[in-house]
Amino acid sequence: MSLKNKLNRLKPHLSTGNSSEKKAVPSSVETSVEIPYKEQWELEHVSPYYLDKNFCLIREVKYPLDQRHGHYRFRDFLTAMETWNQQSAAHPLSAKGFQAEELFFFDTETTGLGGGTGNTIFLLGYASIEGEELILRQHILPNPGAEVPLYQSFLEKINYRTLVTYNGKAFDWPQVKTRHTLVREHVPRLPSFGHFDLFHAAKRLWKHKLERLKLAVVEKEVLGVERVDDIPGFLAPMIYFDFVENKKPDGMIGILKHNEIDILSLVTLYTHLTFQLCGLDHDSTRMETFEVGRWFAAIGEKDEAEKVLGKLTDGQDVTACQAKLTLAFQHKKEREWDKARNLFVEVVQFGEGRLALDACIELAKIYEHRLKDLESALQYCSQAIIISERTPSFHNLSGDASMEQLQARKERLNRKIAKSPR
Amino acid sequence: MKLKKDLQAILSDIKVNEDFKDNIAAWHTLPKKEAQTVTCPRDLHPLLHEALNQKGIDELYTHQRSAYEATMAGRSIVAVTPTASGKTLCYNLPVLQSILNDPSTRALYMFPTKALAQDQKSEINEIIQAAGMDINSYTYDGDTPANIRQRVRKAGHVVITNPDMLHSGILPHHTKWVSLFENLKFVVIDELHTYRGVFGSHVANVIRRLKRICHYYGSNPVFICTSATIANPLELAENLTEENMVLIDNNGAPSGTKHFVFYNPPIVNKPLNIRRSATLEVRKIAGELLKNKIQTIVFARSRVRVEIILTYLQELVKHELGSKSIMGYRGGYLPTERRKIERGLRSGEIYGVVSTNALELGVDIGQLQVCIMTGYPGTISSAWQQAGRAGRRHGEALVIMVASSSPLDQYIIQNPDYFFNKSPETARINPDNLIILIDHMKCAAYELPFKADEKFSNVGTEELLEYLTDERVLYRNGDKWYWMNDSFPAHNISLRSASQENVIIVDQTDIASVKVIGEMDRFSAMTLLHDEAIYLHQGTQFQVEKLDWDEKKAFVREVDVDYFTDANLAVQLKVLEVDKLQPVNEAEIGYGDVSVRAMATIFKKIKFETHENIGSGPIHLPEEELHTNATWISLNRALSELGAVRLEQGLVGTAHALRSIAPLFVMADPQDIHVIPQVKADHNEKPTIFFYDRYPGGIGLSEKIYSGMTEVLLESKKMIERCQCESGCPSCIGTDAVGDEAKHDSLMILDAFLESSSR
């Protein structure tokens, strides 16, 4: 029996992973370097890049710096860069010591999800400042097998210091490395870059108000970017497979536009994050300001944290309490017991729930071990127990806040008080 | 107080004991064998010398030295190593030596299970640490924490993994393993004999992919395989790796005298020829041995059996030994638990172990004095593996195999010569099974594009690539084929499941925790998982409440009933193409492609003890079709003297007997090969019996039967003749054949086949 017959007989048992209806597949064996639909491409600022008998396509678009994208103009990015350069506090997103031209905003489109050698990158897009313009370039893989010109052209162009991406640390850049490994004998090495991954920043600042932190959501809810007739990203693989077969640019142009907005939004997002972090955004909500302050506290920039959180402490709302608590912990770490105590006391006074519980426990510790005031320590310890008892969700807390530890603390304090001379 | 008896006393005791001696079907004594050793290789690195010295090794067994020399000379090998023969040095020596000579050297070890990989890591690390070598060996599997994966990829000299992980976790990410693949000098495949059938055919393709990636990065590793005793280790190793191999079978490990006793429980039901339960007999015998503090291992075929025997034995000896001195040992135990048992056995604190075949694989538990098998383990090869657990290097050992009533057990126990003289089963794989091959070609294309002149299998690679291109999975550009799909193919392909679309078995006994307890291929599900079927899972009865055929799910609930169900499957088999035909005088033997159409019709409820039919019902399921390979034998004369009815019943009986015997010739589970009779076969209108592979496309089982037909027929005839029943029983021709003449007629049909096939 011929192989073809056998395959057809066994077809019900073969999973091809492709349930879509079969179309006539045009012969796709290309030998010449003819660019199909060249005129239509040119209208979209796309031109070919030739290498030996192979080619890839590159789209280049220039924007004046006064162009607006969402709530900001691209020129505001220059302000952001200046601000970082004047800042004394360190920060993971700080561009101190960088020129604006040295950052490049980067995003890819791929034929599948997740890592894996066979997940092909078919679009490498990036933008950067050149003089009075923002220049966007997109390197397009016209068909599998053109990866050498794709990466050659890409590596010739990128002469930057730092990548700015959205989740690029976990996905885009490792995938670039994977695909590059497959052509590494034919193209230059991948340079090493610094990397600002804005996904982590967005998570820190807006987790409290956004359920999902996809770039599209952040754009809409935070950056004021509106997409018109956008192609959803999950369709990109299908559209690309279609393009590879029939070569018609239409679908691909949709993906290029989608990728373009992603990259422009990275510029706006970085600008906005900088403004938030450096206190230039006067419309920041108190929650956002708190998250900024907490971030500085977490990375040990205590002066900056104090400055930012200090703006919040005159209120009596939850955010004020959160800010005070954060600052109080920072003072405790610095062994500034009085400052810490005063803030903890305020949290107990105005705060509720977990904030008050934590503050009570900290006060009990400070009074017992630092200020040697056992009575006050006992009083705060008892208050902590009361708070914990009336809140069912606190019953299974662990560590200092667990009921066993609170009771043990109380017993110890009682013993100490009994022993101490009056 | 009665004195404890030693093994010598027990041995002389059972020869005269009334209860025991009458049930002995055979007593075979294997003489002891002295160690054959040679000096360590002269070029062995001083650090390795030191490590061996610390382990008390100053000479090597002959096979260890042969393995070292062949592999260091760049030859791939397969070493046949019985239990406890020091096989790990066959690969650890050359690998460590090469790494010590050149620290950039890398090695990949593949074990069939994660547990074995863990054991081997401890073993190799002991050697490494003994001499303070600067060598990293790591396991890499689903349990490896994310934060050390990077280190394993970059710096692991020896990476220990399993085929599933290689398939879906390493090969599809090969760009992250550049330093491994560029420097890969050795691939170690342990427990080679486990890679057979569908699983082996999958793994052979994983190895094709591995070699393809090695080639891409410029390495060409030496393969080191170790195998238990099977009939064709060299053939299997060469088929699996597609490399020329050197066979190393000069085992130099010593062994003591071994007594092999076949024990057949007495008949309790004469008409049905039912014997006393093997489990009960094993309890009795093991109990007696353990009372005398003789270290004993008991094997049982299922976990439930293990638990039953274990509970009983622990009860029996609790006053004398304390329950901790007899332990269960199963696949699912945690490594720490298993270590504890192994230590207990070596130190003598533990006297008894009851185990599933988990211990067939090369876990080191030391050597015991007695091994008892509850029933024939299914293959000669695993019987020897299990027997290998008993037998110290010095002193005597006893192996007792207690037979059950099944035809295969009864055949083996009544034909001891067959067992002792016959070489063990042949392990078959078919890496070119189209369904398996196509799956792995997808994975391979995902890993690296295919080139026009590339040869992946022995069937037309380019034609298959064109097929995948037509299916829009691949894309051809110039002389290369590229992956062009958004999926991750390895995730959809399991190396261990028979067919792509299996029926999942869902246990909903406890509504609060509904869980999946197993899966079954569609074909078998029709007769075993239909609505109301009683499904046995590891000894527990479940009733199928609903079979959702569209969703391929069977919902079951635990029950306790005194019957089992037996479904009727109307099978139509059509020969599509005859590939081989061997005409003999009055019969013909053929092999080729067939289509099997099966439809479940009705099921019967059958009472356990009496085999009464206590009810029946219809089954509503669509017809299933299977394309596979088959071997058949047809009679040229119609045996008209028998008449139509008796011919049919005779064929049914013959088929049953053949079905029981066939697994003896190919290393397969009984359900992997099916046998059906046809009074008048469609393609030649002759009385015919077909043997077909249960896996779509075939995995080489029926092809093996084609070349060994005479032997299968002959052994089946012997089995029926020796059966003590009068007119057919479950131990010979089964209960499906009706009529008092069925046994006689089956023998007549076999004779007719034999007359012609033996010329």
TrEMBL record, chain A:
Gene3D superfamilies: Ribonuclease H-like superfamily/Ribonuclease H, Tetratricopeptide repeat domain
InterPro entries listed in its UniProt record: RNaseH-like_sf, RNaseH_sf, TPR-like_helical_dom_sf, YprB_RNase_H-like_dom
Residue ranges with Basic residues bias: 1-12
SUPFAM superfamilies listed in its UniProt record: Ribonuclease H-like, TPR-like
Region of interest called Disordered, as start-end residue ranges on this chain: 1-28
Transmembrane segments: none
Gene Ontology molecular function: nucleic acid binding
The YprB ribonuclease H-like domain, residue ranges: 105-273
Protein name (Swiss-Prot/TrEMBL): Ribonuclease H-like domain-containing protein
From TrEMBL, chain B:
GO BP annotations, alphabetical order: interstrand cross-link repair; nucleotide-excision repair
Iron is among the record's keywords: no
Name of this protein: DEAD/DEAH box helicase
Stored Gene3D superfamilies: P-loop containing nucleotide triphosphate hydrolases
A Pfam family recorded for this sequence: WHD_HRQ1
GO molecular function terms noted in the UniProt entry: 3'-5' DNA helicase activity; ATP binding; nucleic acid binding
Organism: Neobacillus rhizophilus
Lineage: superkingdom: Bacteria
The Helicase C-terminal domain, residue ranges: 281-435
Keyword annotations: ATP-binding, Helicase, Hydrolase, Nucleotide-binding
Domain Helicase ATP-binding: 68-248
CDD domains: DEXHc_Hrq1-like, SF2_C_Hrq
